[in-house]
Amino acid sequence: MYSLNQLNDLAAVKDLKAKYCYYADTRNWEGFASIFTQDATFDIRAGMSVNPDLSQDRFTAGGYQEGVDNIIAHVRRDTAYLIKSIHQCHNPDLTFESDDEIYGIWPLEDRLFFEENSPMSPIGYLHAFGHYHEKYTRMHGEWRIRSVRLTRLHVDLS
Question: Measured between alpha carbons, how far is 150 from 50 in angstroms, rounded to an integer?
């Protein structure tokens, strides 16, 4: 059973993940940067593949970033050719690792719509399912994302 403080912490982490999706989909990079710790890690090397060795994935080369400034630069670069993105995360499995650390797994469905003649050609559309594996840390009374790792269960490209 959770204490009232723990329930509030879980609600804060859920709100944080909602902001992650909203800021990414609306390209609010200042907001997106504000939800990470300065030393956060971001691993989306399996962004377009279910292949666990990542050898067939477009994101393998630059999909692992350390530090919020590198994360934002990478995401801005990789979304430059998107017309729009839609991220839906739901039903998280959240576990307290300590009073100030939470681990979470979020089921994910996302859709990415690419511009014609972009570096992604001939891919125009991605519809995928997978999970975000994340760590959260409370800093100065506020929850922040410390790490993100994306895994995929299914990817449709067209």
Answer: 10
pLDDT of residue 153: 95
Peptide bond into 122 cis (omega under 30): yes
Beta pairing partners, 98: 101
Gap between the Cα atoms of 73 and 42, Å rounded: 12
Report which of 83, 76, 81 is spatially closest to residue 24, judged by C-alpha positions: 76
CATH number for the domain that contains residue 65: 3.10.450.50
The owner of tokens 């506020």 is 142
Q: Within a 10 A sphere around the Cβ of 10, how many other Cβ atoms?
A: 18
Please name the amino acid found at residue 69: D
Task: In whole angstroms, give the CA distance from residue 27 to residue 21.
Answer: 10
Containing domain of residue 86, as a range?
Answer: 4-157
C-alpha span between 71 and 67 (Å, rounded): 6
Per the structure, how many domains does the chain have? Answer: 1
CA 138/CA 78 separation, integer angstroms: 29
Examine the pLDDT at 59 and tell me if it is beyond 70.
no
Residue of higher predicted confidence among 58 and 37:
37
Structure tokens at 119: 């570096």
